[in-house]
């Protein structure tokens, strides 16, 4: 048989005659397998291989570039769902708000903590092993008819989360943003535990203050015009002072400090192959410091050796 008269077929579809070769591997491909390339056509396998070899774009802080603030949407959704849960079952607040140490009497009433208490009392809070309160409290807010703000508590926090969160998420990428948010929330709860363990607190404010600190650190690192940023921070710090008489300033300050530490690690880690490791290491160290501080405080409150 004359070789030139032989019928050539697609390597993926042997029953389909083909006369076009992949520009990369030179195998024959049919119209269904052709993928447009800079020059000619490529087969699906070569297209996938080429996509794997292309370096993904990153932000200045090492995160993947994202156009949709998905994590911010999810966080707002979780807060709103938790709030609906509070409205349906108000007991959720007592069960999951931040409380370092408290007592519940036989009458069901709540009492100030003391390390020795009658046998018909029982401890509640982190001192009773309820460590989850350190994070769950960051997703709860004041019921509509309680506290200074009522329903405005969640409304103001969610508006702030939307305005600041989507900016921070776009710069950090989703994973770094989640870590920042959770460590800021944890930092706020731990400072409450250290300074005011008997005060029940709740709200996303600690995490949002952490995002505010991140916004400032990132702007400085990127060389942005600091005039508007400084005005924003001045307002944030002013609210921190005002909140000392209205809400948990300890939670706000703890979140602010934790957020600043995390973002400093993000912003000033070396821009080479070590960057992710340094950033993760700094976050891990902060997590250990927070947990050890919380454990030491619980040991102090309970008189454990």
Topology:
Elements (H helix, E strand, L loop, with lengths): L19 E2 L6 E2 L5 E2 L4 E2 L1 H10 L16 H19 L2 H6 L5 E3 L5 E2 L10 E3 L8 H4 L15 H21 L1 H22 L9 H18 L3 H17 L6 H20 L6 H28 L3
Antiparallel strand pairs: 1-2, 3-4, 5-6, 5-7
Helix pairs in contact: 2-5, 5-6, 5-7, 6-7, 6-9, 6-10, 7-8, 7-9, 9-10
Query: Number of helix segments?
Result: 10
Major beta-sheet overview: 3 strands, antiparallel
Question: Gap between N and C termini, in Å?
Answer: 92 Å
Query: What is the CATH homologous superfamily assignment of the largest domain?
Result: Rhomboid-like
The helix-and-strand class reads mainly alpha
Adjacency order of strands in the biggest sheet: 6-5-7
Count of strand segments: 7
Query: Proportion of β residues?
Result: 5-15%
What CATH first level of the largest domain would be assigned? Mainly Alpha
- Note the run of SSEs as H and E: EEEEHHHEEEHHHHHHH
CATH level-3 fold name of the largest domain? Rhomboid-like fold
Share of residues in helices: 40-55%
Shape: elongated
Spatial extent as radius of gyration: 27 Å
Q: Mean pLDDT across all residues, rounded? A: 88
Regions with little confidence, pLDDT below 50 for 5+ residues: none
Which second-level CATH architecture of the largest domain applies? Up-down Bundle
**What's the domain count?**
2
């Amino acid at each position: 048989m004359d070789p030139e008269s032989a019928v050539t077929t697609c390597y993926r579809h042997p029953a389909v005659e083909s006369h076009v070769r992949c520009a990369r591997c030179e195998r024959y491909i049919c119209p269904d397998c052709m993928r447009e390339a800079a020059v000619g056509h490529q087969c699906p396998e070569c297209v996938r291989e080429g996509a794997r070899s292309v370096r993904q774009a990153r932000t200045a802080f090492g995160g993947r570039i994202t156009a949709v603030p998905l994590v911010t949407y999810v966080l707002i959704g979780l807060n709103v769902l938790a709030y609906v849960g509070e409205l349906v079952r108000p007991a959720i607040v007592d069960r999951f708000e931040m409380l370092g140490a408290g007592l519940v009497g036989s009458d069901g009433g709540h009492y100030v903590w003391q390390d020795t208490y009658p046998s018909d009392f029982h401890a509640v809070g982190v001192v009773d092993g309820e460590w989850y309160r350190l994070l769950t409290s960051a997703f709860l807010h004041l019921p509509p008819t309680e506290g200074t703000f009522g329903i405005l508590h969640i409304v103001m926090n969610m508006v702030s989360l939307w305005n600041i969160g989507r900016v921070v998420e776009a710069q950090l990428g989703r994973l770094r943003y989640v870590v920042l948010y959770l460590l800021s929330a944890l930092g706020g709860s731990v400072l409450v535990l250290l300074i005011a363990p008997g005060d029940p607190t709740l709200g996303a404010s600690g995490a949002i203050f952490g995002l505010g600190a991140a916004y400032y650190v990132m702007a400085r690192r990127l060389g942005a015009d600091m005039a508007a940023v400084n005005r924003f921070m001045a307002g944030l710090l002013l609210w921190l002072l005002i909140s000392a008489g209205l809400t948990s300033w300890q939670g706000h300050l703890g979140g602010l400090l934790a957020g600043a530490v995390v973002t400093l690690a993000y912003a000033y880690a070396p821009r080479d192959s070590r960057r992710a490791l340094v950033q993760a290491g700094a976050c891990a160290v902060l997590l250990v410091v927070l947990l050890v501080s919380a454990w030491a405080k619980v040991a102090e409150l309970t008189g454990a050796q």
